[in-house]
Amino acid sequence: MSFDFESVERFIVGTVGQPGERAFFIQARNSKRLVTVALEKAQVALLAEQLTLVIKELRSNDFSLRVEPQPQDDGPLEGPIEPEFNVGAISLEWDALDVMMTIEFSELVQEENSGQLALKVRLSLSMCDAFIARSKAVLNAGRLPCPFCALPIDPQGHLCPRANGYRR
Question: How many domains does the chain have?
């Protein structure tokens, strides 16, 4: 089963929970449907990084491509937040004729014989750029890294391996 969005009104990443215990979700919405999928923080970071690289490469090869600024969407995830599936793989595909990016999120499959769910969205470069900006903001809203070991610092501090186990 696949959730296909040829056009979206809203495509965002968001979290639920406190820093250090956050769950990450992506939501796609058009006038008819809202789909939520769950994924890992590292997947969000990698998707934003890859989209940034692809857009940079596309623009360096075709100077006519424009990324129009869009209003920043700082709104919360839409409820109820019930993910359709957990994301296992993410793929990107550029359509040069339509000047659209397709992002496909495939389900993390636990059993070999089960059907695989997928969410496929087609986005303009402007929507991709807005997603990148929001992703960076969401990722940076988490726990601060330790200046010595770069591991995240919990509100109670952490045992820093660079400080021989002393709490920082």
Answer: 1
Give the model's confidence band at 166: pLDDT under 50 very low, under 70 low, under 90 confident, else very high.
low
pTM of the predicted structure, to 2 decimals? 0.85
Q: Is the pLDDT of residue 133 over 70?
A: yes
d(CA 58, CA 51): 10
Q: Return the HEC string of the chain.
A: CEEEECCCCEEEEEEECCCCCCEEEEEEECCCCEEEEEECHHHHHHHHHHHHHHHHHHHHHCCCCCCCCCCCCCCCCCCCCCCCCEEEEEEEEEECCCCEEEEEEEECCCCCCCCCCEEEEEECHHHHHHHHHHHHHHHHCCCCECCCCCCECECCECECHHHCCCEC
- Domain containing 103 — which CATH number? 3.30.2450
Q: Would you place residue 29 in the very low, low, confident or very high pLDDT band (cuts 50, 70, 90)?
A: very high
Q: Is the pLDDT of residue 122 over 60?
A: yes
**Residues of the domain holding 121:** 2-163
Average pLDDT, the chain: 89
Residue 78 lies inside a defined structural domain of this protein: yes
